[in-house]
Design brief:
four-stranded antiparallel sheet; 7 helices; 36% helix; single chain; globular
């Protein structure tokens, strides 16, 4: 007979903290991106959802709590530890994403919602990783480039990102055309089909 060994539990373990953060995050109601959010101070976690509309690519997601993109915005630089230039990094990041979606020729801000939770910097990464790994959002893993910033001459010579290939129109300049929109859309359809047919979510 195997001798009894009491279970071990660390409430501050990375796994359990991630579960707590993700659970609390998903309790927040999604806010519409149709109107700019009132300015607020702080860093935190956010995720973008397709909540309405007739876009065949994303319509299957409307009845599910499956984000198309998840990200974080911190109050301090993760490399240097220096405070951010602004006290409202999360609000600013969301505002940048609103501009990107609004600039796309085939997307409408009114079709998207966003869930937000202000967090200390130390917990932002845990939450983002939990949501990203749990859902594998299509704009994080397939249509990459949505969250990137255009930074000078080097970026302007770079190939059009996968996101900009499928959703052209953002006020940016690009170099060569590297990706095919139809191939990327096929990959997105496959991923979304897998998402809605599986009981997925943050662990």
């Amino acid at each position: 007979m195997t001798p009894y060994l009491p279970p071990y539990f660390d409430p501050l373990s990375t796994e359990d903290l991630t579960k707590i953060i993700c659970s609390r995050f998903e309790q927040e109601p999604a806010q519409s991106l149709a109107s700019e959010l009132p300015r607020f101070v702080g860093s935190g976690l956010y995720a973008i959802y397709y909540v309405s509309g007739t876009d065949e690519l994303y319509a299957p997601l409307m009845d599910y709590k499956i984000p198309v993109y998840v990200g974080q915005s911190r109050s301090h630089n993760s490399a240097t530890g220096k405070p951010a230039k602004f006290k409202d990094p999360l609000w600013r990041r969301v505002s940048q994403h609103r501009q990107s979606i609004d600039g796309a020729e085939n997307l409408a801000l009114a079709d998207f919602g966003i869930r937000l939770l202000r967090l200390p910097d130390v917990h932002c990464g845990l939450g983002e990783n939990g949501i990203r790994v749990g859902y594998r959002p299509v704009w994080n893993e397939i249509l990459t480039g949505f969250g990137s910033n255009e930074q000078g001459r080097t970026t302007r010579r770079s190939a059009r990102s996968m996101w900009d290939t499928v959703h052209p129109g953002r006020a940016r300049t690009f170099g060569v055309e590297k990706h095919k929109s139809e191939d990327l859309r096929t990959k997105v359809v496959k991923r979304i089909t897998e998402q809605v047919s599986s009981n997925i979510g943050p662990n």
